[in-house]
Write a structure and sequence with these properties.
By secondary structure, this protein is an alpha/beta fold. It contains 15 helices and 15 strands. The protein folds into two domains: 204 residues, Glycogen Phosphorylase B (Rossmann fold), CATH 3.40.50.2000; 173 residues, Rossmann fold (3-Layer(aba) Sandwich).
Length: 389
């Protein structure tokens, strides 16, 4: 099958949607499919052979974050060229409701279109206001996927229609088989995310850290991600700052090794999350997880059965739970076992098969419509009075 996938966000800036698309493309290629991904990217960015650059993106505030999007006449021309050259059996567009390549592709594409909606935003006035503009594009979509029930709810409430829920995928074995690093072991708490994005919750964790260190003075916090490291610790007492180690941006391999090494992974995100791919990665690596009780996180963690939850933005609750877990090796071992079993439902072997089923449904449907249209006299063309003489 020839599959075209449209990535809305800049390929060279790491994010959950980009990782999902990358891993989906790798999975499909591994199964023998012909895949091309269209994505914004800087001209000097090294790209995988299956990625086609649509040009440089610009930063746009979006859903409590900053999304790097690509939109405009030049982008539209590149989308049309990619579609023309690709002759795809199916187009898979991610985030078609954002002002991005996805929306441009939705306007321009012909044939079967699958759309995946990642955003969870229960009160998006912008999405409601944009609906009249989006409607003609959205009506062309053959099948809709939402990565979680909360992304599905956002779609239903703001744009109408419905979607099948297929979660983000993870290569579980990649994380499960990673080798721990000795220097990252021994009383360590892990955090991975953009340091300077408040909704990722690092300030909440920093506020909780003095209480954690008061009870567990040997604890170290390992932080992986880009951002201003000095600003991140400015609220922390000077004498405690040595207990925080910033690792900067890490490779996929080191991310897996970090998650295999820590005693506890903490996800203190404060909102705007529709899924929680880092939780799935952490469970895949066997890390006990402590996360804010966001609806999306609770769903990923099986309502607290596969990882523990604390009250969102409550640093005291975070600290109390972290201290208890760091002191209870038996409970952490229990969470490892439960998380490792629960996470198998998110493996690409399952998620990829579900997405392929959607592709096959829309392409089979398109083939059936084409056959019906050419079938005289009972085809669709005849049925609507459009049959050729």
């Amino acid at each position: 099958m020839k599959i075209g996938i449209v990535c809305p966000y800049s390929w060279d800036v790491p994010g959950g949607v980009q990782f999902h698309i990358r891993d989906l493309a790798d999975h499909l290629i591994g199964l023998g499919h012909d895949v091309s991904v269209l994505a914004p990217a800087d001209d000097d960015t090294p790209l995988p052979p299956y990625v086609v650059s649509a040009g440089r993106a610009v930063p746009v505030p979006y859903n409590g974050s900053v999304a790097r999007l690509n939109f405009g006449f030049l982008s539209a021309a590149r989308v049309r060229r990619w579609l023309h050259d690709g002759t795809f059996d199916v187009i898979h567009i991610h985030e078609p409701a954002s002002p991005s390549l996805g929306l441009l592709a939705c306007w321009a594409a012909q044939g079967p279109i699958v759309a995946t909606f990642h955003t969870s935003n229960p009160r998006s006035r912008a999405m409601i206001a944009a609906y009249p503009i989006l409607q003609p594009a959205l009506e062309k979509i053959s099948a809709r996927i939402a990565v979680s029930e909360y992304a599905r709810r956002t779609l239903v409430e703001h744009l109408g229609g419905d979607a099948v829920v297929i979660p983000n995928g993870v290569d579980v074995d990649f994380f499960a088989k990673a080798e721990p690093r000795v220097e990252w072991q021994g009383g360590t708490v892990g955090f991975i995310g953009r340091i300077d994005e408040p909704r990722k919750g690092l300030p909440v964790l920093m506020k909780a850290l003095p209480q954690i260190l008061a009870e567990r003075p040997g604890t170290r916090l390992l932080v992986a991600g880009r951002g201003d490291e000095e600003e991140a610790v400015e609220t922390l007492p000077e004498e405690l700052r040595s207990r925080v180690e910033f690792l900067g941006m890490v490779s996929d391999e080191d991310k897996a090794r970090l998650l295999r090494s820590v005693d506890l992974y903490v996800a203190p995100n404060t909102g705007g999350e529709s899924f929680g791919i880092i939780l799935v990665e952490a469970m895949s690596a066997g890390a006990p997880v402590l996360a804010a009780d966001l609806d999306a996180f609770a769903q990923v963690l099986d309502q607290g059965a596969a990882g523990e939850l604390f009250a969102n933005e409550d640093a005291d609750a975070l600290a109390a739970s972290a201290v208890r877990l760091l002191g209870d090796a038996e409970r952490r071992a229990e969470l490892r076992v439960r998380g490792s079993a629960h996470v198998r439902r998110f493996d690409w072997s399952t998620v990829g098969a579900d997405i392929l089923s959607v592709y096959e449904t829309v392409t089979d449907g398109a083939a059936a419509v084409a056959a019906d249209e050419s079938d005289e006299p009972g085809g669709l063309l005849a049925r609507f009075g459009l049959a050729r003489d």
